[in-house]
Task: structure prediction
Amino acid sequence: MQRESPPKKRCLGEASDIILATKLFFRCANLIIPWLNPQELAVVAQTCKTLSLISKSITFHRSLDAARSLENLSIPFHNSIDSQRYAYFIYTPFQIPASSPPPRQWWGAAANECGSESRPCFDSVSECGRFGVSLVDESGCECERCEVGYCKCLAFVGMEEIGNECGSGCGCGSDCSNRVTQKGISVSLKIVRDEKKGWCLYADQLIKQGQFICEYAGELLTTDEARRRQNIYDKLRSTQSFASALLVIREHLPSGQACLRINIDATRIGNVSRFINHSCDGGNLSTVLLRSSGALLPRLCFFAARDIIAEEELSFSYGDVRVTGENRDNKLNCCCGSSYCFGTLPCENT
Ligand SMILES: C[S@@+](CC[C@H](N)C(=O)[O-])C[C@H]1O[C@@H](n2cnc3c(N)ncnc32)[C@H](O)[C@@H]1O
Result:
């Protein structure tokens, strides 16, 4: 009888084991590290040289696209004044319901394609940002061809100042020309750091008057929650440099009475419109409230108010109310640079 030779003992130090272990280490690191926020990333980077290198690479990739491949074009950060490479927030291309605590989002590794092996695609904001709000109503049209910016079937009595787009309630398809703002950002933009204003959104190409730029996407809040968050943001701002992006939109009836109030907070979850700064002369953007059929709430959309050249900062007016009396400590200096500059930023009286 032939004796079987005992299996050869494998030594852990063998080159193939080391290669395998290294590959596994990199794979795990690449799966986990893109989910970390900057503070966590900084802690991980201090643990060893390899993780420090991976963290640097993540930081580099984050600075290349604030939109995490969720828009048609990359929107990079540019900073030539200090060491901050990017601003951290969760990206959503659309309005979403308030989220507590904010979800995590995969951001910053090279294979950034949604649905790739390292980045599974789930239908939620924490993954691919596809979670839009569409509180459904019954309206819609049966048109097959609609006019750009307005479909005659979608007029709301008493709210004629709100623009209308076709939507899920309509008979026309997604290629309908009356869905200009539903196809994502299609102009080249970049986010540039300024010493006084922080991050600013810039045009990176010529944008023609009337072209759609982006919508103000963020968390939709109740008025109570908006007031609670505004208090927190005011306190944070008094102790550290902190930029909030909570916008309150009031739509008025012809009588002057407010009839609709929408609170959108893009501070923790939002899109690139959270980087649009205020200008006292009204800036170069016009804002339009747009309702698409099938969605109960309108969306605030930005269009070019005139031709905007590449390298021009995008701005709009945050409002007319300025801090007075006992709240003066809370005022923020305005650095818009326009000849009409009021000296302080408008405030939101939530
Ligand atoms: C919606 S954020 C705009 C992006 C912001 N610059 C950032 O770094 O994230 C609003 C904040 O930007 C700053 N900001 C906006 N417009 C400004 C202006 N004209 N002058 C100075 N700071 C401005 C203020 O800190 C304000 O609270």
Notes: The radius of gyration is 24 Å. The pocket of S-adenosylmethionine is lined by residues 87, 196-199, 243-245, 274-275, 277-278, 332, 334-336, 345 (CB under 6 Å).
